[in-house]
Design goal:
This protein has about 425 residues and is an alpha/beta fold. It has three domains: about 90 residues, LysM domain (Membrane-bound Lytic Murein Transglycosylase D, Chain A, Roll), CATH 3.10.350.10; about 260 residues, TIM Barrel; about 50 residues, Chitinase A, domain 3, CATH 3.10.50.10. Helices cover about 35% and strands about 25% of the residues. It contains 14 helices and 21 strands. The strands form six sheets. Strands 6-7-8-11-12-13-14-20 form an eight-stranded parallel barrel, surrounded by seven helices. Strand 12, helix 10 and strand 13 form a beta-alpha-beta unit. Helix 9 packs parallel to helix 10. It is globular, with a radius of gyration of 23 Å. InterPro entries: CFLE_GH18 (IPR041704), Chitinase_II/V-like_cat (IPR011583), Chitinase_insertion_sf (IPR029070), GH (IPR017853), Glyco_hydro18_cat (IPR001223), LysM (IPR018392), LysM_dom_sf (IPR036779). One of its GO terms (cellular component) is endomembrane system. Pfam families: Glyco_hydro_18, LysM.
């Protein structure tokens, strides 16, 4: 397998012919709904043989195949870096890092849920079932699970109940504050969380309280510790979804004590995305520098084996006014972003500074749009961080958002650690 970046004049047929790969296999691997690829688009080429092209070097081939040059030389018996056009090189598999991966799954229909559970079971150790809403009195909303937990366990994926302070108007600081600061309500919430986990055959809980205030930090650590103390004796895990934090000075992250939460929880899910989001200006959703800083900050405050790096299966589409201001913005799945570029026949750019893809297009009303999103190249960068920092694994928000290449890349870098 290697990543090919489409050049001007390329067609799906010409790319397949160049590398002697079946065209349909490229289409299926990359989830292409239409054939008219565009310059700058990245394609996973499903083959372990690379045919050297004009201008290639071992360095560029290694980058495309995500394999060290010395490994390619070793497996191909090469004693120098000299290549000849048309030479066939075997692309050896990477030595995989053993990881416990966590991906969020939102129940929709039984057929769709079963499809997702089966499709991603070999690359995930946990499914975070999103989600139970918690109210200010500690009660939890119902969630129709049908056979999700049973099937997940059959596939050796631990089903995890996600508990959030999400309301109809967004995440509520007031709801979270009510629960973590009032001992009576907190105890009621603990009982309800325990009963949800035990009565529905979950393997644990994932607490996702967002928009906490700075004065919530200590109470939140206490709450997480109490959840774990309640669940741990019966073998259930306690995990926490954390906003990306790179320092101790950013006001909106002061409610999250990484050191305290890291000590209280079994593991954490770093939401290392939305550095640019629908409520702000266009820009990279998960820029590599900030993602790296988030991991490093977390490692400075907790054990690496407690850290799961959360990555997005989406980007944002910003509609722009003539004066450069944002009219509106919406989240868009990676697959839909690529389809938008193909439909509008606009080239895709890639920022080597941020390691994120982006492009612009004009809609039927004459509005300019800017899309930034995660692609195969940027996902590979994140997976390499998991290996380099030796953390617990990678986590995906969320499996229902189409990113066809992601599953192949995860399998290329990581092997599954079974936890149940």
């Amino acid at each position: 397998m290697f990543i090919y970046v489409v050049k001007a004049g390329d067609s799906l047929f010409s790319v397949a012919s160049k590398y002697q790969v079946n065209m349909d296999s490229i289409r299926i691997t990359n989830g292409l709904k239409i054939p008219n690829i565009v310059p700058g688009q990245d394609l996973l080429i499903p083959t372990n043989v690379y045919i050297v092209q004009p201008g290639d070097s071992l360095f560029t081939i290694g980058q495309m195949a995500l394999v060290p040059v010395e490994t390619i030389k070793l497996y191909n018996g090469l004693h120098s870096n000299n290549l000849s056009i048309g030479m066939r090189l075997y692309l050896p598999p990477r030595t995989k890092y053993r990881a416990a991966n966590f991906s969020y799954l939102t129940p929709t229909t039984p057929a769709r849920d079963i499809e997702l559970i089966n499709q991603f079971a070999d690359s995930n150790s946990y499914y975070g079932i999103f989600e139970y809403h918690i109210s200010s009195d500690g009660t939890l909303s119902p969630l129709y699970l049908h056979s999700i937990n049973t099937l997940s366990r059959q596939k050796q994926v631990a089903p995890i109940a996600v508990i959030s302070n999400l309301t109809e108007t967004g995440f509520s600081s007031a709801v979270a504050r009510s629960i973590i600061s009032n001992p009576t309500i907190r105890d009621q919430a603990l009982n309800n969380i325990y009963n949800i986990v035990k009565n529905n055959n979950f393997a644990g809980v994932n607490i996702d309280f967002e928009l906490l205030k700075d004065y919530d930090a200590a109470d939140y650590v206490t709450f997480i510790r109490m959840v774990r103390n309640r669940l741990s004796p019966e073998g259930y895990t306690t995990s926490v979804a954390l906003p990306a934090k790179t320092d101790d000075t950013t006001p909106w992250t002061k409610g999250y004590d990484y050191k305290g939460i890291g000590a209280a929880a079994d593991f954490v899910f770093l939401m290392a995305y939305d550095f640019h989001h629908g409520g702000g200006e266009p820009g990279p959703v998960a820029p590599i520098k900030e993602v790296r800083q988030t991991i490093q900050y977390a490692k400075n405050h907790m054990n690496a084996n407690k850290i799961i790096l959360g990555v997005p299966n989406y980007g944002y589409d910003w509609a722009m006014a003539r004066d450069g201001s944002v009219i509106s913005a919406r989240a868009i799945a990676v697959g839909d972003a690529v389809n938008t570029a193909m439909t509008n026949q606009v080239p895709i750019q890639y920022s080597n500074q941020y390691h994120q893809a982006h492009f612009e297009y004009w809609d039927a009303l004459g509005n300019r749009h800017i899309i930034w999103f995660e692609d195969s190249r940027s996902r590979a960068q994140k997976l390499q961080l998991v290996v380099d920092y030796k953390i617990k694994g990678i986590g995906i928000w969320q499996l229902g958002l189409a990113f066809p290449q992601s599953i192949y890349l995860v399998d290329h870098f990581l092997s599954k650690r079974t936890v149940i």
